[in-house]
Backbone:
């Protein structure tokens, strides 16, 4: 079974530019989550999709962040325009069911975003 | 609201020595607790989880953790460190199903194993 795939693995962009991160979940996993780790801080929840619907986007930092999951397959997270404080590692995770104890999460390797 | 505190951002041990990574949590409801590990250039991998059953939880690669409600702790241990254990370890908490499902992570502890 293929795991959760994220790309790019690294991205360096200038402040004010736009970046789009992509996550391909495990096939058949309806639940998809985005988390972010800013340097030196905790990994924090950003949002949760069930299929193509956003169930919870309470962790999205501001309206410069836009997440989509058209067709309920892969997801993209766009940052426009990027600011310096957006630098960090963005993790994607997927789960077959919402009960993370029963079904568990599988995390991707993350995208390291650096805004200069 | 829930929170996790990992004591020590960096722990260094000798190969063969005891590994002890500390985690304290705060939760207004009975928590579910997790330890994840991240090896270089890889994703987060679940080591073990506590879900209100046995308080001593055994995980992969010889790790175990003990839930102590009175101390609000969930420390991770391994009797004998191996070079391959070098990685970053994250403690996380979430409320049981039916309530807030989000994982709340600690800041992580980087484990270095010296030969």
Residues:
């Amino acid at each position: 079974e293929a795991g959760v795939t994220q790309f790019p693995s690294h991205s360096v962009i200038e402040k004010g530019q736009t970046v789009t991160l992509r996550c391909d979940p495990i096939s058949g996993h309806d639940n998809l989550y985005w988390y972010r780790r800013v340097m030196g801080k905790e990994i924090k929840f950003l949002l949760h999709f069930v299929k193509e619907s956003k169930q919870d986007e309470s962790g999205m930092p501001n309206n410069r962040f836009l997440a989509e999951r058209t067709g309920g397959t892969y997801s993209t997270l766009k940052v426009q325009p990027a600011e310096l404080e957006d630098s960090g590692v963005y993790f994607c995770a997927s789960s077959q069911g919402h009960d993370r104890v029963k079904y568990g999460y599988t995390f991707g390797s993350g995208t390291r975003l650096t805004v200069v | 609201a829930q929170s996790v505190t990992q004591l020590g951002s960096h722990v260094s041990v000798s190969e063969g020595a005891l590994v002890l990574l500390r985690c304290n949590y705060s939760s207004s409801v009975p928590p579910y607790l997790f330890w994840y590990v991240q090896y270089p250039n890889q994703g987060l991998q679940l080591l073990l989880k506590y879900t209100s059953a046995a308080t001593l939880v055994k995980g992969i690669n010889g790790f175990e953790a003990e839930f102590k409600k009175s101390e609000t702790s969930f420390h991770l241990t391994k009797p004998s460190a191996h070079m391959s254990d070098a990685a970053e370890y994250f403690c996380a908490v979430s409320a049981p199903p039916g309530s807030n499902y989000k994982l709340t992570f600690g800041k992580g502890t980087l484990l270095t194993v010296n030969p």
Remarks:
- The interface with chain B takes residues 3-4, 9, 35, 40-45, 48, 56, 59, 91, 93, 98-101, 104-110 of chain A (CB under 8 Å).
- Chain A is about 0% helix and 50% strand.
- The mean pLDDT of chain A is 92.
- Residues 31 and 50 of chain A are 5 Å apart (CA to CA).
